[in-house]
Amino acid sequence: RLYHLEVVQQPQRAAEFSSYPLSRLPVTPPIIVRLDIHDASGNPVVPEAELPFLIAHLSLYNENGLERVDRSPTQSGFGSAPVLYGNLVSSVEQLEDLQGNRGLFFLFPDVSIQWRGRYQLGITLLQISR
Predict the structure, then answer these.
(1) Tens digit of pLDDT for each residue in 18-33?
(2) For the chain, N or C: smaller number of CB within 10 Å?
(3) Residue 42 φ/ψ region, left for φ over 0, alpha for ψ in the -120 to 50 degree band, beta for the rest
């Protein structure tokens, strides 16, 4: 099978919350990713038995997309602290798009970024074992 992820809605801006996690606001609009699955012949398929085991994970990269920056050094200098907060894992949902076509989507409605900057978001598709 061939799996293809397409970001159909992504944030353009976000509010940093610095060291005040209780004031964090999610990025808007929320991140929505479409999953298309095709068989070896290129025909679209929806493998119902496989869907409960597919998840997507969200990561944060620097502006050019080459380096992961999900975590930053702590103020004490020991360990690291998350830069990307919220629900970073999503299970697949069967929904309709804006044109009324059914599809497979991953939704990330509660994601925040701690520090101001220019970033890229990365999405990884994973299949958990049965």
Answers:
(1) 777 778 889 989 999 9
(2) C
(3) left
Would the pTM of this model clear 0.85, i.e. be above it? yes
DSSP class per residue in 23-79: G----BSPEEEEEEEE-TTS-B---TTTGGGEEEEEEEE-TTSSSB-SEEE-TTSSS
Residue whose structure tokens are 């059914």: 102
Tokens representing 86 are 């919220």
The SS3 of residue 18 is coil
Whole-number pLDDT of residue 126: 96
